[in-house]
Structure formats: C-alpha cells, structure tokens
Amino acid sequence: MEGVLLLNKPAGMTSHDCVAKMRRLAKTKKVGHTGTLDPDVTGVLPLCLGRATKIVEYLTASSKTYEAEVTIGFSTTTEDASGEVIERKSVNPQITQEEVEQVLLSMTGIIEQIPPMYSAVKVKGKKLYEYARAGIEVERPSRMITISELVLLSSVNNEDGLAKFRFRVTCSKGTYVRTLAVMIGERLGYPAHMSHLIRTKSGEFDIANCLTFEEIEAAIECGELQDSLLTIGEALKDLPKLIIHDTLTEKVRNGAVLELPSEFLEFEVGSPIAVYGEDGSCIAIYAKHPTKQHLMKPTKVLMNES
C-alpha cells in the first residue's frame, strides 16, 4: 500500500498518535505526516504511506487555511483553551462587528509574529515548550508571516463579559493561529485566546476530500483503502513537471545527472522538478545542479530499477 491519505484529524490526538494508529490499521511501519497539528485541532492532515514517505518534505504546504474561534476576555498560558488562565478583563463596552472587521483588515498582509512559549520553535537548542514547562521565560525571535486572507465568519457574541466570534485565515507556513487570536485581542484592547480551530486546507488538499478514521477502517474492511489514496504523482501535481521518454527512465531510476531542459534554466538552485515516465508515474524529484547551470541532479529517486 502506498500513496497519500488525506486524514480529517480528530480532536484529542497528536499528529504522532495519528501516524501510530495508521501504522496499525495499514499494517506498515512506513507512515509519516506532513505537518504537526496540536491535539485540540482538527482537520486536514495528509499522511504518507509506503514509498510516499519519501515526498513528505514536498507536501509541507507553504499556505494553509483555518477556521478559528477567538474568545475575548481572558488569556491562557498556551494561548488556547487547554491552558491556565493568566489574565482576565471583562469586555465593556461590547465589541462591535465593525471593530472586529477593522482589526482583521489591519492584520492582513505581511506582519510580525512572536511564536508562543508553548511551541516547538527552538531557542539555543531547546524547544520553547521545554522552557515553558520548566517555568523559564526566554526571549523569542520574531518572524515575518503572510496573512493572505483574514475574514469574519460570524456575528460577535457578547455575553457574560466575554466576546466570541469565528474567523477564517489563509496564512503562510509557520503561522501560529492561536497567537493570531491573542494579537486580535490585543488590538481590541483585551486579553484573548483561541477557543477552537480546524484546518480546512493544506496547500491544495481540502477537508472535503479527507477521510475520518471511521471511514478509513470501513475502507480497509472492504479492501478499498488503496483506491482512496492519492498516488505520488497526484500528490505532487503542483510541482513543475517534466515527462521523459522511456529511453531515459532507467538512467533516472539509477540517479543519473541529466541535461536541464530550457524551460527550467531560470529556476533557482534546489527548486524541485517532478520527473514522470510516459506511463504517468512519478519516478524522481530533480533540482537544478548547484554548480553546473545546464544540468539537473536527483534529490529523491522514488522508483528504483527493479
């Protein structure tokens, strides 16, 4: 069994938990995920099975879309609903829809963000959450992120000194949506946290095409799971594509350096090119040679000569 399985990740499981469960269900050790989701977060989590584990690095999408709920009125240690409350401030007067929309508009584009203490970002060789669990506050490096879309999805619910609303965000890789929720609260003048999150899109992979574990188990029982997997070629369809003649196939399978076709001459060194055989199967990933500008070399051979 090989290919990319689009999982609709359930709440309460880490990405590693999902991989471990899929290994048991598919009866294979070759399973990998393409981007960590926190346990409370649900939604799109592509899993790679079999030889598809070789393409994990090419599926960590640069753009992701989430639907989130922010609660204004108190903040937490983890910036989401699982943390301990660290600050409260009753929302008064009530927050209006116009105020929220203005704040969301002001945060669209390239903005600066500081990653949360409870995150896997490394500082001086240690992950931030390791410092946080030890009660140590360290200086965190800021990063520039891109918010392509940030729109209000619901009315603003003002009740019991809190305000809640839902928003959709399409953002660059490395964006922390829970930190985004905190930043929205700060611009409205209140402590805040992210109270719910679902990833609806990862690159071109959409939640509408994802399977739950219940659906996966049913497909396995019927012997139909392989039919639900994307082939390696389908999963890499957004990469630049080169189709080669059968005469070159054996050389590619053996990792040969090739002439770089003219349409790729302007590519940056290291930019991936998916190489397909005439039968439509993706054989390898190549990239422009670092020193020989008119050649390309393999970075991943996906189908070796058998």
Automatic annotation (TrEMBL):
Listed Pfam families: TruB_C_2, TruB_N
GO molecular function: tRNA pseudouridine(55) synthase activity
EC number: 5.4.99.25
All residue ranges annotated as the Pseudouridine synthase II N-terminal domain in the record: 23-177
The keyword Isomerase is annotated on this UniProt entry: yes
Transmembrane intervals: none
InterPro entries (alphabetical): PsdUridine_synth_cat_dom_sf, PsdUridine_synth_N, tRNA_psdUridine_synth_TruB, TruB_C
Keywords: Isomerase, tRNA processing
Catalysed reactions, as listed in the record: uridine(55) in tRNA = pseudouridine(55) in tRNA
Active-site residues, record numbering mapped to chain: D38 (nucleophile)
Domain tRNA pseudouridylate synthase B C-terminal: 178-222
Entry keyword annotation includes tRNA processing: yes
Enzyme class label: isomerase
Role: Responsible for synthesis of pseudouridine from uracil-55 in the psi GC loop of transfer RNAs.
Protein family according to the UniProt entry: Belongs to the pseudouridine synthase TruB family. Type 1 subfamily.
Name of this protein: tRNA pseudouridine synthase B
Organism (species): Metabacillus rhizolycopersici
